[in-house]
Design brief:
The complex is a heterotrimer of chains A (278), B (275) and C (328).
Chain A: E1 14-25, E2 28-40, E3 45-49, H1 56-64, E4 71-79, E5 82-83, H2 89-95, E6 100-103, H3 107-110, H4 117-127, H5 133-146, H6 152-155, H7 165-177, E7 183-187, H8 195-212, E8 215-220, H9 223-229, E9 232-237, E10 240-246, H10 247-252, H11 257-264
Parallel strand pairs in A: 3-8, 3-9, 6-7, 7-8
Antiparallel strand pairs in A: 1-2, 1-4, 4-5, 9-10
Chain B: H1 2-5, H2 7-28, H3 30-33, H4 65-101, H5 103-118, H6 121-132, H7 136-163, H8 166-173, H9 178-214, H10 226-233, H11 242-269
Helix pairs in contact in B: 2-4, 2-11, 4-5, 4-7, 4-9, 4-11, 5-7, 6-7, 7-9, 8-9, 9-10, 9-11, 10-11
Chain C: H1 10-39, H2 45-50, H3 56-65, H4 72-84, H5 98-133, H6 138-151, H7 155-169, H8 185-219, H9 222-229, H10 234-263, H11 265-271, H12 277-286, H13 290-318
The chains are: A alpha/beta (278), B mainly alpha (275), C mainly alpha (328).
């Protein structure tokens, strides 16, 4: 098994090397991420799949340095070659929302109920001082159109609860795209949505990958989604990467029992397998 | 996460427990602990500041402030205990009956409780005292009545939760009588939250009793109570602040002790309420 | 406005009507309870008004003039009907019309409770927020402990201590009395400092806990993580995203606490000789002055009921899933 899916002559957007996340508890230390190494290249959607508690979300939040304060992190996380783990908090704030964006799992819970949608979509631009006033408003409208939101002019002034689940998730994606990030971390962005809406969001993410050239780390527990969307996949279990490789390879010829077990639990996969791996 | 790092909480509960135990012992053994009788006059030593003979000073009639505060503990504990018990027993009976039998009984009882609950507690205590007449016994009654709606709501909610469990249905199915079901299945399962509430009621009762005596509606002079001692002392605040300060601190410490124990009980019985 | 602009649905209207009906029910029962309770107050009105050496004839005459010789239910109905028409009767003691006096005293108590409420919030909101942000660290423990300590002080003892310190020792503030704000704002506020502190500090004990719990809950919500993921600094996370949301929970409880404050002014008004509704209640009790006692006790109760009703309704209206959250 290859250790990395390094591409010759190309620097990865994200390179995680031997990441460990531990929580000090009164009754000893809990290891949530146990020596994870992975890479995300420009224009690539990398799936990180595992059951809850496998450490996949912890890995994602480590990259953004949004772990609880009791977490103890070691290893290396490099964004375009820049080491993030040693970055001071103020510098890390410049990275968040600017060079790395998060598309969260539950869009409604992730939107502030007391602020208008347009404000929240434009907030990264304002926070990173890249635009104000009418210019900001125009860019928010552009972003909303880009993610396919209905009636942007009205939606800008809407409250989060007034949008449908799919539109809420599109608002979160628009927020993530606001500053054209190098890396997009999508944390199960379609789990809370029903199937038809889910398909629309996956199409949108694919389109974003194609036109922006950003790297995307796609956290999920759904092999079906991985098969449909991702180029490369890491399978995580118990805080470790147990297997990784191009999606086609992992899904058709899994090397690990754990992956086979995940595959067996996803019966609908049989059909789309043939189309995987463009 | 709270379970691991809440060491200050149980340490506080322990402090509370020590305070409560001390206060209870002082109340029980007041005649043995107090250096003087509560009504003993020392005419030569009126308004005396703390001395060897009177560790916490004397009042305007030369009575020993420490001894009076110690004897006042009895009034306070009696009223608080009886009032909390009255609220607990009557409230529980009402709440359990309302939840167990439901229907119109539930509706009537709980509507009535709602009205009682909507009165501002302090106003209700004052008006009830005025209606019942000023005495220690009536203070118990008035404060107890105030507690009834709170306990009844809690008992009703807890009983309804128990009723949804399988075993009550099972007990009814095998033909167990209502009384036995309530005694065997319902009460043991609702007692924990009620006791937590009782600890809170206890400390609130101490506050209310002292307030009523302060207003002259509770224990009547010359019998000492913390409230009437503070009230008397206010007239001598400039020369002899200890007359008010000593009973005030006694109330503060006692209420604090019961609150800390109450918080500890709440933590122990209901992990969900933990932060 | 937003695309879909929800209007009050039928279910909310039903809820409002239910609340209103139970409010009216509470009002009737409360007034009945008060009336009956006060009628059995030991010692007679005549005794208190005429003195202990009044002749039986004089007492009978007094009772007849004031209608006290009729059955209680007749007295209640008459009193209720008069009250509904805004006639609160006249004081047995000095023949003064209770209605206007009640209005004056209501404003006094409202000022006292309002200032105390401001004190309570000025303590509770910053301390509760601070404790939540320092959750499970030293300053959290200190603030939580402080709140526990505040909660154990009787307001009348705190008042006594404040008088000892600020009036007797430091000679900074007058010991008590009342001057209307319109007459001399400075003197009015100087007189209100100690009463407002006594009530406010004690009631901040509960509010600190509420604010802390609300902030802890909000800080752990997903949208706070979103804000951080956008690169927002702590100041923006707390002020723009967290506090607004915590306040909507907090204010529900705080509003009820305001009603509670209003209901607990009796002792403080007595100590500081403030001519509000609370001291009116005590005067009524002391003199067996039924019209005074009934009118003052009932107006306190009604005010508290109205505050609770408003909170109930406001909670319904401000729920983001029901209608736009304009308040925030």
């Amino acid at each position: 098994m290859v250790r990395r899916h390094a591409r010759p002559g190309q620097q990865p957007v994200l390179a995680i090397d031997d990441l460990r996340v531990r929580f000090r508890r009164r009754r000893g230390v809990v290891t949530a991420v146990d020596g994870v190494t992975l890479e995300v290249h420009p224009g690539e959607i990398v799936g990180v799949i595992g059951e809850s508690g496998s450490g996949k979300s912890m890995t994602a939040f480590s990259v953004m340095r949004l772990l609880p304060k009791t977490a103890d992190l070691s290893g290396s996380i490099r964004l375009d070659g820049q080491e993030l783990t040693a970055l001071p908090e103020a510098a890390m704030r410049d990275v968040r929302g600017n060079r790395i964006a998060l598309i969260p799992q539950d869009a409604l819970q992730s939107l502030n109920p007391t602020l208008r949608v347009g404000f929240q979509v434009g907030e990264p631009i304002a926070l990173h001082r890249r635009g104000t006033g009418t210019g900001l408003r125009g860019r928010v409208l552009d972003l909303m159109r880009a993610v396919g939101m209905a009636r942007p002019e009205q939606t800008v002034r809407a409250w989060p609860h007034q949008l449908s689940g799919g539109m809420q998730q599109r608002a979160m994606i628009a927020t993530g795209l606001a500053l054209e990030p190098r890396l997009i971390i999508a944390d199960e962005p379609t789990t809370a949505l029903d199937v038809t809406v889910q398909a629309g969001i996956l199409d949108l993410l694919r389109a974003i990958r194609d036109r922006s050239g950003a790297g995307m780390m796609f956290i999920t527990h759904d092999l079906g989604v991985v098969a449909e969307l991702c180029d490369y996949v890491y399978v995580m279990n118990g805080g470790r990467v147990v297997e990784h490789g191009p999606v086609e390879q992992v899904l058709t010829a899994p090397a690990e029992d754990y992956t086979r077990m995940l595959l067996a639990a996803t019966p609908s996969l049989d059909a789309p397998l043939a189309e995987v791996g463009t | 996460m709270g379970r691991e790092i809440n060491w200050p909480r149980w340490r506080l509960a322990l402090i509370g427990g020590v305070i409560v135990l001390t206060v209870l012992l002082v109340a029980i053994f007041a005649p043995q602990v107090a250096p003087y009788g509560p009504l003993d006059l020392d005419v030569a030593q009126m308004l005396s500041p703390p001395t060897a003979a009177h560790p916490l000073g004397t009042d305007e009639l030369g009575r020993d402030v420490l001894s009076r505060a110690i004897f006042a503990t009895r009034v306070s504990m009696q009223v608080a205990f009886t009032a909390a018990l009255l609220g607990l027993v009557v409230g529980t009976v009402i709440g359990v009956l309302a939840a167990y039998f439901g229907g119109w009984l539930d509706l009537v009882l709980m509507r009535f409780m709602e009205v009682l609950f909507s009165f501002p507690a302090i106003l209700l205590a004052v008006v009830l005292m005025a209606a019942l007449g000023t005495s220690v016994f009536n203070a118990m009654l008035a404060i107890g009545i105030i507690f009834i709606p709170g306990f009844s709501r809690l008992a009703r909610a807890a009983t309804q939760a128990v009723m949804r469990q399988q075993y009550v249905e099972a007990a009814q199915a095998i033909g167990m009588g209502h009384t036995r079901i309530i005694a065997r299945e319902v009460l043991p399962n609702i007692i924990a939250p009620l006791l937590v509430e009782a600890a809170a009621a206890f400390s609130y009762a101490i506050l209310l009793e002292s307030m009523l005596s302060f207003l002259g509606l509770g224990a009547q002079p010359p019998d000492p109570s913390w409230g009437n001692m503070i009230s008397t002392g206010r007239g001598f605040m400039a020369q002899a602040p200890w007359i008010s300060v000593v009973p005030g601190c006694a109330i503060f410490l006692t209420v604090l002790g019961f609150n800390l124990v109450g918080d500890g009980l709440r933590d122990a019985f209901d992990p969900h309420l933990r932060d | 406005m937003g695309p879909a602009f929800p209007t009050l649905t039928e279910s909310i209207m039903t809820a409002l009507v239910t609340r209103l009906l139970s409010f009216l029910f509470a009002l009737v029962v409360a007034s009945l309870l008060l009336f009956v309770a006060i009628k059995v107050v030991p010692g007679t009105a005549a005794g208190a008004a005429l003195g202990i050496d009044a002749t039986p004839q004089a007492i009978a005459r007094f009772n007849a003039t004031h209608g006290l010789d009729r059955p209680v239910y007749v007295q209640y109905l008459e009193w209720a009907s008069n009250t509904l028409h805004g006639d609160f009767g006249t004081s047995f003691q000095n023949g003064v019309d209770v209605g206007p006096e009640l209005g004056r005293r209501f404003l006094v108590t409202l000022e006292l409770a309002g200032l105390a409420f401001i004190v309570a919030n000025l303590i509770a909101i910053p301390l509760g927020t601070w404790a939540a942000l320092r959750h499970q660290r030293a300053s959290d423990s200190i603030i939580t402990t402080l709140a526990t300590l505040f909660g154990a002080v009787p307001s009348f003892f705190l008042a006594t201590l404040l008088i000892l310190l600020l009036t007797l020792r430091l000679k900074l503030l007058p010991p008590g009395g009342y001057i209307p704000f319109s007459q001399d704002p400075v003197a009015n506020l100087r007189l209100m400092v100690m009463p407002a502190l006594s009530l406010g500090i004690v009631s901040s004990a509960l509010l600190v806990r509420i604010m802390r719990a609300a902030m802890i809950e909000v800080m752990s919500s997903d949208f706070i993580r979103t804000a951080r993921a956008k690169g927002a600094p702590q100041r923006v996370v707390v002020l723009r995203h967290a506090i607004r949301n915590a306040l909507s929970t907090y204010l529900n409880v705080a509003a009820v606490e305001f009603g509670f404050l209003f209901g607990s002014v009796v002792v403080i008004e007595d100590i500081f000789r403030i001519p509000g509704l609370g001291s009116f209640v005590l005067t009524g009790i002391l003199n067996r002055d039924y019209p005074v006692l009934l009118a003052s006790a009932l107006s306190i109760t009604v005010f508290v009921l109205v505050v609770n009703l408003i909170v109930d309704v406001a909670v319904q209206l401000l729920d983001p899933r029901v209608t736009d959250k304009k308040a925030a």
